[in-house]
Please model this.
Amino acid sequence: LAARRWSTAAIRRFRARGNEAWAALAELTRLRANLGFAQGTQGAPGASATGRSGRTVHLATEAQHLAERLRAYGLGADAALAELIAARTLIATGRRDDAARGLAAAGVARTLPLEVALFHCLVSAEFAALEGHTGRALAELRAGLAMLHARRGQLGSLDLQTGAAALGAELADKGLRQVLDQGSARQVFAWLERSRAQAFRVRPVR
Model:
C-alpha cells in the first residue's frame, strides 16, 4: 500500500514538472505494486472470480500501454519489465496466447539488466507451468538462479543487490513448490539448498 501511495504521488509531481518520462517510470513502480496486491488478493474471501479476472485483464492492458510509452521515451529495459508484468497477469487468468506475445515482446532474458532478466525467467517458468511443462519451468528457474550467481558480484549498489536477492528467493521458492508437488526427495533437497543459498547470500536491509 505504501508503494502504491508513494508512486501515485510521484506520478503527480513529475507530471506537474512536465517530465513525462519520469512519470512513466513512476507508473511502472505503481504497476509493480498493483501486481503484488492483485496476487495477494487472489484467494481473498468475498472477491468473485469474475471480478478478479476483470482487474487482472485491466492491469495487463495498462502495462501494455505503458510499455509502448516507455519505448517511445527510449527506456527499453523498463518497457520490457512492463511487458513482463502484463504477461504475468495474463498467465494468472490462463490467457496463453496473449501471455506468449507479452513474453516475446519483452525480448531475451540474457540481453536485459539483471533484475528484469530474473523477472523474465520467473514469468517464463510460470508460462511453462501453465502449459504443463514442469521440466521446462524448472529449467527456467535454474537458469535465473545461475544468472543471479554469475552477475550478482557486478552490482555495486546495496539496493540492487537486495532487489536481485528478493527475485532470487522467489525463483528458489517457486522451484521448491514445483518439486514438492512431484514428491521427489532428491529434487526437494536440491531446491532446499538453492533456497538456503539465496536466503543467506545477502544480509537483509534494516
Notes: DSSP finds nine helices and no strands in the chain. The first helix runs from residue 2 to 16.
